[in-house]
Amino acid sequence: MPTTPQPPGSPHPRHCGAGPSAVPPASGWPGPDGDGDGPSAAELGRRLVAFAEARHWQPFHTPKNLVAALSVEASELVEIFQWSTPEESARVMDDPGQAHRVRDEVADVLAYLLQFCAAVGVDPLTALAAKIERNEQRFPAPTPGRSDGTGRPAPVDDAERTPPH
């Protein structure tokens, strides 16, 4: 996402402190691109709050404004994939320019999400852990002899319904 010049005194720059220099290269994400040694969500949340406080932006960081900005940034992430095929979308990180755009938009989405969570007092990782646990209960994994995670028996083919001789 290109940064757009902001009018003097504008309370909300495009990146809200989530630009490339705001986070050290080690992401803290235990996925393929991170080693788990980077900053925590809590640390990044504190940095974003401090960033906004230093610029006197707190009056603008209401839950409504933050969630609206989060929605806009999520839409900008969606825009990168608009009209791409499933195959193209799976390869988006192979293109350095597109990969840079994806990382910037992910950073913007996460920045606004962390700021929103700080504003409303939600620990995002605790909320996610609780949601995963609820989903594990609501949508159990299929078990042998079961067709899906509903707990219902697997459907029987008509051929299997043949009465015994």
Q: Short description, anyone?
A:
With 165 residues, the protein is mainly α.
What attributes characterize this protein structure?
single chain, 165 residues, mainly alpha, Helix Hairpins, 5 helices, 0% strand, disordered N terminus
**Overall domain count:** 1
Number of strands: 0
What average pLDDT do the residues reach?
Answer: 79
CATH hierarchy, class: Mainly Alpha
Query: Radius of gyration from the CA trace?
Result: 22 Å
CATH homology group: MazG-like
The CATH architecture can be named as Orthogonal Bundle
Give the assembly state of these chains: single chain
Low-confidence stretches: 1-26
The total of helices stands at 5
Notes on the protein architecture:
- The model is unreliable at 1-26 (pLDDT under 50).
- The protein has five helices and no strands.
- The chain is extended and about 60 Å long.
- It has a single domain (20-142), classed as Helix Hairpins (Orthogonal Bundle).
- The protein is mostly helical.
- 14% of the residues are buried.
Secondary structure elements and pairings:
Layout: H1 41-54, H2 63-81, H3 86-90, H4 96-120, H5 124-138
Helix pairs in contact: 1-4, 2-4
